[in-house]
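Job type: complex structure
Entries:
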Amino acid sequence: GAGVSQSPSNKVTEKGKDVELRCDPISGHTALYWYRQSLGQGLEFLIYFQGNSAPDKSGLPSDRFSAERTGGSVSTLTIQRTQQEDSAVYLCASSFDFGNTEAFFGQGTRLTVV
Amino acid sequence: KNEVEQSPQNLTAQEGEFITINCSYSVGISALHWLQQHPGGGIVSLFMLSSGKKKHGRLIATINIQEKHSSLHITASHPRDSAVYICAVRSGSEKLVFGKGTKLTVNP
């Protein structure tokens, strides 16, 4: 596609349920990043992928969070047993390569845990 | 103390004014990014720079590596420039570390 696509754009879920957030990067981009923006807070790093592998998972808040990427393309961020503090906008970005290259962001998924 | 500090936190200007947003960081970096986030939430990358100065239209970004400081300037500001401007640095790993953003409102 023309840009980074994320789905769903909005998700409301009940506390304790699992959710899956999807990111479709720009075709050909090898680097994929997940970030989170909580209400009133700045962006925080969650995880990045180099191809299908995730060299840095240091930003994942807890073991309820996991992510995978298949075929060097689509990535899924899964949150198990959601908690209210998981409510945030989850942003995905991709770039052609690593190092100092421009990152292109998706519109984000707004997750609300009730 | 955050690794990336932005100032001001909020900025209101009249259309046509010259705008400056500042970013200071405390770590060695390989690159600094300026991002724009509109009210709808979408983020656009404005600049990526590791030295000197870059210009795109009415936007100018500068960086001083020795002083660990960058500025984003907007000339002849317009209401459509109203957005949150975010400074982010990359320091040896792939992840970006973000400032908390500067909310700019340009009134007609």
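Summary: Chain B has a mean pLDDT of 92. Chain B touches chain A through 24 residues (CB under 8 Å).
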